[in-house]
Structure formats: structure tokens, C-alpha cells
């Protein structure tokens, strides 16, 4: 298997060879803030199987367990590309949202499920559009 991906502006591209070791969804506070949503989803690969082109900026912090976590992102468009953790120093976790095609991947584990916000789930009655709707704020009714 081979996975490719890029940031929103295309300044950073990558290829990952082989199957990911795990695909995880994380609801920790840091991942929610990083994504601006209720979670992140990433696929972990050995460093040696990933080729990255372009220059990433990084942000480092200490996890609750004391490990050093590094998040890498595009300095131009801000797209998150990967994360590392000093507990698994030979691996990196690529964001599924940056992949060109992650359709064969499935979430295998959920981390910090206890911190999952109630709004990070779609009820059956939520209005859904296949593409960008023509709705405008002044319409008041999302169905219009």
C-alpha cells in the first residue's frame, strides 16, 4: 500500500509506504484545539516509511503522561500534517484529512473517549447536503 497527501496549499507533500500500524481518533483537549473540532484522526507509520517534501513548522508540548508531543503543520496554510510522541520515537502519525485517499482506512481505536464532546456526533435528524448549499444567514432556515 502507498498513501500520499498534502497540505491545503500544496507546499507540503508526502508519501507513506505500507499499511499504518494503527488508525486512531483522539478526543484529548490538545487534539480538539489543534483540529478546531471534537477530535483528530491519524494513521501511525514508521518514520522510515514516510517521505516528506516541503518544510513544516512545529509546535511542542508536554502530554499529561510527561511525553513530548510535536505537531507539524504547514506555515503557509496551517494544515496539520503529522504528530510525533517521544513515547514512540521511531513513528509519526499522519492526519487522515491531509491524505489524498484514505478510503481504505478505518478507525481502529478511540483515545480519550471520556473527553469526547456531546456535539461531536451527528444525530439522525441533522440536515445533510451532498455539496455546498445555497443557504445564506439572512434566510434563517437552513432548509431554504
UniProtKB/TrEMBL annotation:
Alphabetized UniProt keyword annotations: Lyase, Metal-binding, Zinc
Family assignment from sequence similarity: Belongs to the Gfa family.
Single annotated GO MF: carbon-sulfur lyase activity
Residues that span the membrane, as ranges: none
Organism: Cohaesibacter gelatinilyticus
Span of domain CENP-V/GFA: 3-120
Keyword Iron-sulfur: no
PANTHER family, per the entry: CENP-V_GFA DOMAIN-CONTAINING PROTEIN-RELATED, GFA DOMAIN-CONTAINING PROTEIN
InterPro entries: CENP-V/GFA, Mss4-like_sf
Protein name per its UniProtKB record: Uncharacterized conserved protein
The organism's taxonomic lineage, starting at the top: Bacteria, Pseudomonadati, Pseudomonadota, Alphaproteobacteria, Hyphomicrobiales
Amino acid at each position: 500500500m502507498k498513501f500520499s497527501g498534502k497540505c491545503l496549499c500544496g507546499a507540503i507533500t508526502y508519501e507513506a509506504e505500507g499499511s499504518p500500524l494503527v488508525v486512531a481518533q483522539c478526543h484529548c483537549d490538545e487534539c480538539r484545539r489543534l483540529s478546531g473540532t471534537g477530535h483528530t484522526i491519524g494513521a501511525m507509520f514508521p518514520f522510515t516509511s514516510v517521505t516528506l517534501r516541503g518544510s513544516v513548522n512545529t509546535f511542542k508540548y508536554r502530554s499529561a503522561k510527561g511525553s513530548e508531543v510535536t505537531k507539524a503543520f504547514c506555515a503557509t496554510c496551517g494544515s496539520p500534517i503529522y504528530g510525533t510522541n517521544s513515547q514512540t520515537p521511531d513513528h509519526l502519525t499522519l492526519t487522515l484529512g491531509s491524505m489524498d485517499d484514505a478510503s481504505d482506512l478505518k478507525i481502529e481505536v478511540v483515545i480519550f473517549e471520556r473527553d469526547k464532546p456531546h456535539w461531536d456526533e451527528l444525530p439522525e435528524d441533522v440536515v445533510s447536503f451532498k455539496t455546498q448549499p445555497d443557504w445564506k444567514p439572512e434566510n434563517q432556515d437552513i432548509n431554504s
